[in-house]
Design a protein that fits this description.
Layout: E1 5-10, E2 15-20, E3 26-32, H1 46-61, E4 72-77, E5 96-100, H2 101-110, E6 115-120, E7 124-129, E8 135-139, H3 142-145, H4 151-168, H5 173-182, H6 187-196, H7 201-206, H8 208-216, H9 220-243, E9 251-255, H10 262-275, E10 280-281, H11 288-299
Parallel strand pairs: 1-4, 4-5, 6-9, 9-10
Antiparallel strand pairs: 1-2, 2-3, 6-7, 7-8
Helix pairs in contact: 2-11, 4-9, 8-9, 9-10
Length: 312
Amino acid sequence: MTEYYAGIDGGQSSTRAIVAAPDGHILGRGTAGPADEVGEGPGSSRLAAALEGALEEAVRAAGLPPQTRLGGVVAGISGYEGRVRGRPPVLAAERTLLLHDAPIAHAGAFGFGPGVAVLAGTGSVVYACNARGEPVTLGGWGYLFGDDGSAFGLARAALREAMRDADAGVARGLQATVLEHFGRESLREVARAVYSGEIGRDSLAAFARPLVRAAESGDERVAVLIRDGSMALAILALYAAQHVGLGPTPAVACLGGFFDDATIRSGFAQALRALLPGARLTRPLHAPVVGALLLAYREAGIPVPGIEEGPP
């Protein structure tokens, strides 16, 4: 009887799952909502619903019976620190491993080789590993203390600048950009909506896109905020490479939805060259969800195959 394997990438904005055959051929894909548990209480089903829903959809898309028990599942979850605070997910598999999403991103990017994975989506984190498999995680402190260089980090910085302008009694374009995007009459309305949860972290992070467009149109204040975030991530990449002894020419891969924007990729590349001129920016071999699948094969003790990704 054929055993099937699955990888899951549970992020702050969405969750992706893939189901594959033992030979690496991807058979089905599924998606669901955010999986992180930041701000969630013990009764939350957010993580469980996201993992279960994405995997169920991937199993259906693979043409497998709903009751199929998989050989192994690895799920990388944004912000995961070793325990589930809400309802634990129930995944039909012989082996299930939950871990932080940084290792799956690294496995996908480098195929278990050495390098530095820089993740910037809603949040940000940097994960490096050397040829001996020794890892280090830097950043990843969450939206209150970290997430510099991420979509949320840029939105937070822009709101802070707009609020400082308001306190100084200076009417600048950034305030109008904030109010127009969120459809509010005042910055205090925006602040109250954020603190009450009416404007969630994913909605706040979505404000980064119009900010990037503003920078591209010549808004130098926003351009400075983007450069500051890029430099913060580049510093973490430098530290991570040093921590695991990758030398002066480490491979660095950029992952996460925020890096889909050419302006963000370019800004990070420029900051990295300034700090670590010998760094080699490399294209990730695979997406993080594929990295989770590769780890599922390895956890099952079977040879890790080449991946036939097919259409997305």
